[in-house]
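User: Sequence in, structure out. Go.
Assistant: Echoing your sequence, followed by the structure tokens.
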Amino acid sequence: MTFPSININLRNLKNDIFSGIIVALVSIPIAMGYAQISGLPSVYGLYGSLLPVLVYAFFASSPQFVIGVDAMPAAMTGASLASLGIATGSVEAMKIIPAISILVALWLLIFRLIQAGRVVKYISNPVMGGFISGVGCTIILMQIPKLFGGNAGTGEIIVLIENIINEIPSFNLLSLILGLGTIIIILLSKKFFPKFPMTVVMLGLGIIITAVFKIDRFGVKLLPAVEGGIPRFIIPDLFSLKSNLTTYIILSLTIALVIMAQTLLAANNYAMKYDYKINNNRELIAYSAMNVAAGISGSCPVNGSVSRSGIADQFGCKSQLMSVTAFFTMLIVVLFCTPYFVYLPVPVLTGIVMSALIGIVDFKQAKRLLKCDKIEFLIFITAFIGVLFLGTIYGVLIGVLLSFASVVLKAVVPPRAFLGKIPGHHGYYNLERNSNSRPIQNTVIYRFGGNLFFANIGTFENDILSSIKEDTKYVIVDASGIGNIDITASDRLVSLVEKLKKKNIRFYMTEQQGHVNDLLRIYGDEKFIEDGHVRRTMSLALRDCGFTKPYPLEGLSSGDKYLYIEADEKLAEFEWAFGKDAEEKMEQMAVKMAESVSDAAENASFDEIAEISIEQLESKIGWGKIGLFDEEALLEHFEIRLEQLVSKGRLDPKILNELEKLIEKRKELVEYKVSLLNPKAKELLHKRMEVVEKHLQKLNPKEFEHIRKFKQMLKEKQEED
């Protein structure tokens, strides 16, 4: 076996070594805290950051990912042991937890044998985000009493809240100040100095404060004595699990699933970011091997650490030499520094752990999903609440079910639209997203963007039937997105055709793959094809309806059929691209153009500004060539924004005067181009400008009127001059 991940490059040697030292130092308090959460003495967090890290470095295919004692496996282990009544730090816990690590390793090896890494792609970000956020919040609730001098709780959210209330009699103000102060300082450091290892500093400060001021005299709890030296390697006793074997098998399976999903997803994200590939099967072997190493070290299961990988990345890590360096750094800590940890205040260690946990609670993703996809938001919240109220094991099961539910929901409600024509343009356009698109007379054209099967054929049928009007004679389905159809959908399709036939409406399905026709024949619906309800193209279906180009469109007379021709440029492209936000986006681009003029005016002479072309200004927005009608609207927005800059004193009126001349010339050129295509198109152009004017007035009526008056004043002054 080769070890490409330990690919020493002299040019990056310094970064790999330095990032390894930083990762090890940052891991000290975090790993100790997570070890306590799992039910072990804190020193086992250091043991879990030794041999497992070194083993992963040699087995992994990822050149830069970091592993260690981490939140998810620790929390799942600790919560399960607590539910079984096994005390934290007890002899029983120290026997059972390493055995769980070995079981996790066995599951990961099985995952490799059955190539289960492929399953990861079926776990969506909302599911994983909700699950991880739920675990993060659960552990934070567990740890809150330790911030003010109490004892950590176990269980689900209701039990944890009760524990917080019950621990209030143990309240110690100095402990709370130390704990909250640690959290605030670390979070502020992450925001303003992301590369600075503040957790290490807070660890050192906590030890120094205790050594100098003896704060334990004031009721602040300190960390129990930490035994020094390298770990005594053991053979985990799997027979210790026999009393609750089923529970431990399920627990180890769910931990293995979380390790596989979370670590593989995160490692692949780094691979995509830096354009290299990792071997998922080899990664699973590495995860199995590192958990064997954790088990024989007496530690809880270990996982990939997103936060520590981010730290290594910030310091330029490019190979697993970083992990080798982290191993030797941690070895030095274990051999020579553990006697000093007895001075570490528990609230400070708790604050360090909680600040790390706050980073994994992803409410930003929830906010984003709420804005853009309500179904995905519901999936996130369900996974989140499932973990909080039912526990991590049920949370995993809910997450897996939701992942598949998400796939089904998207298949049940695929993208779909009703289409029309823009005169003079090829293709068919969404009627909702293109205001200049018109339905073909007496015809419904419907696009369905997914496979047809039992769960969505009802949506397909209801959409079509609800679109029927009194004058509808033809229904044509653009089936280019339909690559498969099941027998239920096939039968319902034939039934739909019969319903339409009774209404004297002819039905066509076009553009579908030949495989769909084969399936229709296999299901016994060959007559559907023989009766001409399938056509290869939309044009052939329209021809069978008796239509020839140019097609008759609703709302247009025959003399207006070329009214919207715009040569090779796309008509109302902003509307197509941005939908109902088209005018707002155009306004933003106009502001960007105006700001570029203002910035240029600060560093260029009047003559240089006057030489700027409209094309140069339009290039600032990054859109590329703009269609004629869209450009006319953009110029109107742009002119208003320039006048606003003058009124605020940010632009010389003389520059505005020169630019207005350029804008007018450009508008004349646009109108000339349009008139060459068809004189009637001018009518639409002016109507569109009226719409733009009304929109600008709606944005801010007072500002609009103020700018108009200011513009009139400037013109009067120019005429006087």
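User: And one key feature?
Assistant: The chain has a mean pLDDT of 82.
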